[in-house]
Structure formats: structure tokens, C-alpha cells
Write a structure and sequence with these properties.
Layout (H helix, E strand, L loop, with lengths): L3 H8 L5 E7 L18 H8 L2 E7 L5 H10 L27 H7 L3 E7 L20 H4 L3 E5 L10 E3 L2 E2 L9 E3 L29 E2 L2 E2 L3 E3 L11 H15 L5 E6 L21 H22 L6 E7 L35 H4 L3 E4 L7 E8 L3 H9 L15 H4 L9 E6 L1 E6 L2 E4 L7 E2 L4 E2 L7 E4 L15 H17 L4
Parallel strand pairs: 1-11, 1-12, 2-14, 3-4, 3-11
Antiparallel strand pairs: 2-13, 4-5, 5-6, 7-10, 8-9, 12-13, 15-16, 16-17, 17-20, 18-19
Length: about 500
Amino acid sequence: MVSLAAAFCLITARTPNVVLIYADDLGYGDTSVYGATSVKTPNVDQLAKSGIQFTSGYCSSATCTPSRYSLLTGRYAFRQQGTGVLPGNAALIVPTDQITLPKVFQRAGYATGIVGKWHLGLGDSRDQDWNSPVTPGPRECGFDYSFIMAATGDRVPCVYLENQRVVGLTPDDPIQVSYAKPFPGEKTGVEEYDFLKMKPSDGHNQAVVNGIPRIGYMIGGKGALWKDEDRADVFVSKGVEFIEKNAAKPFFLYFATHDIHVPRVPHSRFVGKTKMGPRGDAIVEFDWQVGQILSALARLKLADNTLVILTSDNGPVIDDGYQDEAVERLGNHRAAGIYRGGKYSIFEGGTRVPMIVNWPGHVKPGTSSAMVSQVDFLASFASMTGLDLKAGDAPDSLDVLPSLLGQSTTGRTSVIEHAGTLAIRKGKWKYVQPSERAPYDVSTRTELGNSRNDQLFDLSTDPGERHNVAVLHPEVTARLRKELNEVVAGGTSR
């Protein structure tokens, strides 16, 4: 019997390139192919039309850092302390002595690169010297090339790092970063409020860069500071450059956009493209980035031998700390589609995200209800490249490659969802464990889904999770509670 890895050798001249386009805060309902009518996303739509559109694709957590951690390590982030949303000066949280997604590709002879948002920490402490190469970082995690922002657009330091060195930094203007207190003489968003080009709605009132207040304080590096409006162009140029330089050999590109995360400051080319204000315009800018990457693959005649995945790190958030009229101009747009909650929420809107897989000639176009999680990418691509994982590697990553390629509709039998508390979905049932956390986040206007009682939802008849039927189905509740506890206690689900 021919193995799946051997089958790949038969159907393609070489192992396919892999491009992972990872959006930030893009909700299940934020693109037109997933039902949006207030914004058009033709490039995402085309990718889906000629590929597989998943309706049960999951990130592992309802916030960015833990999802990115799980994506790279194949390990649920709740298993490791310190994997919550990180400040911009956090130390690296990815163990450098363990297998990661890019290391899987490296071992298969791929060139590996990351362009865009990192947000997994840099260095070995919070006392990084930003004026020298910062290590450990993406290189030690398996990336041959990196062009990144350290954290998020709303956190300092507001600079790019190429191969772990700040771009455009001069010795006479060194960078200093602090999340404890402002630097003497530095004006913050509080003092500069009347002059800001984007004002905060909650927090975000510390260092001011490019007329926008951020989280954290920094001084120096004036020649290295980014301009928010140009970020998409910068990332696209670096992503295309990586593809061009590695066109003659297999490559893995992790293209992690900043869009549509706050602060939403799209380039003037995209301003006014929707009636939803900066959030809607940022979706259009994201779609443009997708188009630019796909165009580069086509121009270089690489499209037919490149597997492209598009997905998001968590569900949507409308007001996330800035006065950008996202709430006021939302209209009838449903960022999470038919699902309840969003970013930060244990409801489906927090972790059920867009997921599209495209590989011309090898992936049959269509829609798939197979349940797959981003934590599975590591084991699935290890299978594709013929790498055998050791017993302790990627403990929560399952080989769902047949589902990703449209050869199976089964996928996972269960998936863990994480948002402060934990939930497990198995088939039509979803169980949410009790939590003492607040059920609602006032600052982001998000239903977090927390309850002091067991919650059980039948997603086949109640996808919006409106009716807790735990009391009506005590045997199902008990069974899923037990299975969730076993996964947590066992340290693995693979």
C-alpha cells in the first residue's frame, strides 16, 4: 500500500511550497465568501472558489498569542504558563529545543520565512537590548528569514525587525522600551489627546507614535519607527521578495498580516472603500494583500505547486480600544456570522474562524464540514513531508492532512476551545466548563460566554449557543466534562 507521503511524490514533481496567510482578528463572517455583504473580498473569494472552504475550522484560542503559540508548537497554549496576550517586551515563549511548524519544513529541505506579526516574545528576558540583534527569536524557532513586528500595532516597540535586528536604527538614537513607567520628558496619549489622529476608547494612552497612542512606553529610534498606513505595503513587499528569492526550491512562508487588528489605519488607497469605516476598509486592505501574494505566485509560475492556507488567529472584535467608529458604522454586518461572541469569547465566534485551503490540481474545490484546528497543521505537514514525530512532539497536533486536502470529511472527532475557560466540541455537542470570570467584557462589548454552571449546546440546532441544555442532557454533559478533564490532565490529546 502506498503511503500518503509517497503518494505526494507520485503526483507532484516536488513537495509543494506552502504559504500560510494568517489574518489578525478576521471573523468568520468578515469576508464575502463567508456571507459578508457590506464588504467585498474578491481575492479571498477566488481562493475559496478554487479551493476548499471549511465551515468548522478552528484556531485554538480566542486571543492572538496563544493561537500563534499553538499553531507553531502543535501544543495547546493552556498547557504552558505565560502564553497569554504578551506585552511588546516579553521574552520568547516558544521552546527552542522542541519541534515547531517551520522546523518541520526545514527538515524537509524547505526555505522558511515569516513576514508580519510575531507576538510570541523575543529574547530571554524583558530587558532586551533593542539596539543589537535580539535573540532568541524566529531563527531559533525554525525560520531562516524573518521580517516582523515584535507584537501588535497597538504595542511598543513600533519598529520592524529583519532577521532579529531593528530596521533603520542608528547608533546615535538608541531605543528604550518600558511597560512599567514613562520615560522622563516623553509625552503620552493623555497629554497629547487633543492632537491625536486616532483617539483611544479604552486604555491605549501611553506612548504616541505616528499620532496614535499605544500600550507601553518607548523613546529613541525615530528613524526606525513604522508608519501604520504603509505597513501592509511593507509586509507585502517583503513577502513577495521572499517568494522571489526562493522560487527555485521548496519554501514555507508564514505571512502574518496586521490587518484587521487595531489601530486600524489602512493606506489612503483603501480609505472609504466600505461604509464601515476603518475596520471595513482594513478588511479590503487585507484582501488586497492576499491578492498580491497570489499574483506573485502566478507571475513566477508557482501557483500550481503551492499549497495556500488562509485563516485567522481568533474571532472578530469591533471596539478594541480606539475611537474608529467600528461600532457606530457596523450596520447589518455580522463579523462572526451566525455565531455568538468573538475575540476573547468561549462562544463559537471566538475560535471558529475562516479557513481556506487551495492547491490547484490537488485540492478539489468545494465546501467541507470536517472539523480541523490550526494546532493540527504541524502533524499534518509532518505527514506530508514524511517526518515522523516523536512521542513527546506536538502533543495536541493530529494528522488531518486528508481533510485539509479534501480527501476526507471526517477531520477531528473533538476540539478544545480556549478563552480564559475551556470548552470541548465533539460532534454536534459543545460543553463549556464553569468559570468564575465575568460573562461580559464592557470595554470591548463582547459576550465572553462564562458561567458558574456547566453549559451544553447542541450546535446542530443552536449554532448561536442561545440555549443551555446541560440539565436536559446530564449524561452528555458528564461525558464531555470527563473527556475535557482527561485531555487537560493527560498533557496530550494526540
